[in-house]
Specification:
Two copies of one chain form a homodimer. Chain A is an alpha+beta fold and about 270 residues long. Chain A contains eight helices and 15 strands. In chain A, helix 6 crosses helix 8 (about 250-260).
Chain lengths: ~270, ~270
């Protein structure tokens, strides 16, 4: 099911600035029985992102009405919200009168092996780097070519997620997830003020477990006692292996899973 | 006039990966009397960009046929070609069977003051930086939020173009143009292997005038004897002022204008 500005259509005008420039933000969320856990947080993050880009955020009631129409009443589903600056004239300058466009797409839930939550996943290190730019850091914006290129580095089952470093050799996170590490006994996660996405599950876990933001290198991760990745679709997955390194500890990720499950995530 | 995969429609499927992730490349070109100067070069650059992103480049004959249908027979127009990875399932991993999508949009030519070619333009320095990433550098890809934010820094007539620096304080170019400078008597332009777009007019001028690639700082530009900006739509504009600095020399830009006009650009 796809709604564009509230209308049931799978089509978007070709002059949309989201398509032309990636000029917009999005949210990907898990839904259960017609409800989206943490929807308030998702809408707040979208509003903050839209504010930083200078895009007017549609009223939350519009998003909620779209979701009520598009979500199945029963079972799990994936809901995606996209907000673009709308149709625009040629050129980068945002037109003053552009009406932002909202797109709500609901897909069926893709089942994943239960072992990814219990035993963990294989994490590989991607060659594709993330450019550093504070102006865009933290935002879940539509400029995601770096993640596409990183995820295209493998297509077999050798890894579930890929780790990305920035151009300064700092850990940013997974292609589609944030990363947490237990370093010197303390749970930490990279800051998102120079690159990366300020994940909703990440924020929840920082609050629930008192995790700290700390710049991390690949060496820090290899030396860590425990590693896990998070996002709002999957909750938290232990990292069983990072390339050749194995991780056996699971105490921190169990606490993280308890926290996100209490909020309704998988 | 808009053609999507050869069909006269202004609509694109909402699951297009160009919209979802900026997963694609584009070309913006000036057309005269139904013909596009330097079309060979544009199609070659698009093919190279598509190749780097792993997107299959449609046959040049398809683009040419679209342009033949969309372009007016008389007068100047702006033609834009967009190539996306096509419709995709959820997630960053490119689907193997995705058919790339081509969009051809033709707009009317926007007249600009003749003085921008003769006397020059005001160039301002943008606060928004360009992230450094060799994986994307040089490409005219659809991730253009940095340029959008830079161009949104002003909307009055105080400047025509904005200069962007990368995160390492090097000059990248204008928001929509490449920049050339006469430094120590030699014409040079920043390399595009860490950030920036490998412009078609830029390449032509490098070849015609023997310009060299050289890393440039803002101080280099202020100390330069002459400055100009280029793209395939406008050809070459002298820079009359860079913030408070005035430039009076025009010899290099006149040579550049002669070269691009010989190729059919304005």
């Amino acid at each position: 099911v796809i709604l564009v500005d509230g209308a049931a259509t799978p089509l978007v005008p070709a002059d949309d600035r989201g398509l032309a420039y990636g000029d917009g933000v999005f949210e990907t969320m898990s839904a259960v029985d017609g409800r989206v856990p943490l929807l308030e947080r998702h809408l707040r993050r979208m509003a903050e992102g839209a504010g930083r880009l200078g895009i007017a955020m549609p009223d939350a009631a519009l998003w909620r009405a779209d979701l009520a129409r598009a979500l199945p009443a029963q079972g799990r589903a994936v809901a995606k919200l996209v907000l673009t600056r709308g149709s625009g004239a040629r050129g980068y300058l945002p037109t003053v009168d552009a009406a932002p466009r909202r797109i709500v797409a609901v897909d069926r839930w893709a089942d994943r092996p239960a072992s990814w939550w219990s035993d963990g996943i294989a994490l590989r290190v991607c060659a594709t780097r993330v450019g550093v730019n504070p102006a865009l850091a933290g935002l879940k914006h539509l400029n995601r070519l770096e993640q596409v290129l990183a995820r295209a580095e493998w297509s077999d089952a050798s890894a579930v997620e890929g780790l990305m470093l920035d151009m300064e050799d700092r850990v940013v996170g997974g292609t589609m997830s944030n990363v947490f590490a237990v370093v010197e006994g303390a749970l930490c996660t990279p800051p998102v003020d120079r690159a990366g996405v300020a994940g909703i599950a990440r924020a929840l876990i920082i609050e629930a477990l008192g995790a700290r933001e700390r710049a991390l290198t690949l060496a820090d991760l290899s030396a860590a006692g425990e590693l896990f990745v998070t996002n709002a679709l999957i909750g938290a997955w232990p990292v069983a292996t990072l390339e050749a390194r194995r991780f056996d500890a699971r105490a921190a990720v169990r606490a993280a899973q308890t926290a996100v499950r209490a909020a309704g995530l998988p």
